Amino acid sequence: MVFKQDMLIWSIAVVVILYILQGVIAGLITSIPLYLTSYKASWEQQGTFSWVTYPFSFKILWAPIIDSVYIRRFGRNQTWLIPIQLIIGIILFILSFYLESLLINLEIIRLTIVFLLICLLIASQDIVVDGWSVCLFSSINPQWSSTCQTIGLTVGGFIGSTILLTFESSNFTNKYIREPLSHPHRSKGLFSIEQFISFVVSKMTETADE
Questions:
Q1: Considering the domain boundaries, does residue 122 fall inside one?
Q2: Where is this chain primarily localised (predicted)?
Q3: What pTM was computed for the model?
């Protein structure tokens, strides 16, 4: 009984963490239009970038492939999950060096292509994690699947959008953090968007290793 309880807790933790990572990247993607607005992007440019979210609308088209094609040695989930996370990590790691420049110069086409690819990978990971969570909890408590998804995506989205936008802002951190602590004002927030992405990459790498 204790063993089953420990396994349930471990399964919940793993699935929630995977959903949190998805939510963080999804939150980051939804934050980019706000950065584009701050750099005076036109409506046409904003509209072009909005194409990046479409993979989530059409993931049903390749979901059967992910569910049916896999390497038996690694299993249905690890065949897709580990490579997807590693590829996302590599893309984000490279992007962390160039994102600010792409935003400042309004390189919309390049931004759209990169984030479209990231969103495509995240949508594919969502298929894998959804299927995995259903299998994990089907014999115990099927409701845990949707609970883990709701908690993970909500927390991840909050981190990837609200936390990022708030603490990356120099105005907020100067007024509500540095002033009360008698620290001098700075032109940047507690961290940059590049540092935030690097942190996300490190966590994705750790999860893939596990």
A1: yes
A2: membrane
A3: 0.89
